[in-house]
Amino acid sequence: MSLSRGWIEVEFIDADGRRWLVHDKPPMFAEPPGGFLPTSSYPMTVIPCDLERRQLSLDGRELVTIVLRHTDAITGETRFKVAASELVTAW
After folding, report:
1. Cα gap 26→39, rounded to integer Å
2. Is the pLDDT of residue 52 over 60?
3. How far, in Å, CA of 48 to CA of 86, rounded?
4. Does residue 27 lie in a domain region?
5. Between 20 and 30 A from 24 (CA), which of 9, 15, 37, 68?
6. Confidence of residue 26 (pLDDT cuts 50, 70, 90)
7. Is residue 91 situated within a structural domain?
8. pLDDT given at position 90
9. Ramachandran angles phi, psi of 86, nearest 5°
């Protein structure tokens, strides 16, 4: 994650190993305790999303399909399949 000139760029990896970038203003992300500061330790944010579906992969991993709220990846996608272990419900 990087923070510059009032924008935040967040990187995450989906269940298939693809790298995605989300680039938006701080209000589009969950603000950590103490706020967003250039001196903060990383990672320091979560991307608000809605859970659409749960499933098991062929190798037994629990996967979830999520839909991002209020923002999207820089390529325009809003729906992703990620490992359930990557989700958090609160700080």
Report:
1. 15
2. yes
3. 12
4. yes
5. 15
6. confident
7. no
8. 60
9. -80, -15
Per the listing, tokens 């709220």 go with: 69
* 60-71 per-position pLDDT tens digit: 999 999 999 989
Which amino acid makes up residue 10?
V
pLDDT of the residue at 27: 81
Can you tell me which residue has the tokens 């305790």?
A: 33
What string of DSSP letters covers the chain? -EEETTEEEEEEE-TTS-EEEEEE-GGGSBPPTT---TT--SS--B--EEEEEEEE-TTS-EEEEEEESS--BTTS--EEEEEGGG--S--
How many domains would you assign to the chain? Answer: 1
Q: Specify if 7 maps to a domain.
A: yes
Is 20 in contact with 49 (CB distance < 8 Å)?
Answer: no
Do residues 44 and 50 make contact, with C-beta atoms less than 8 angstroms apart?
A: no
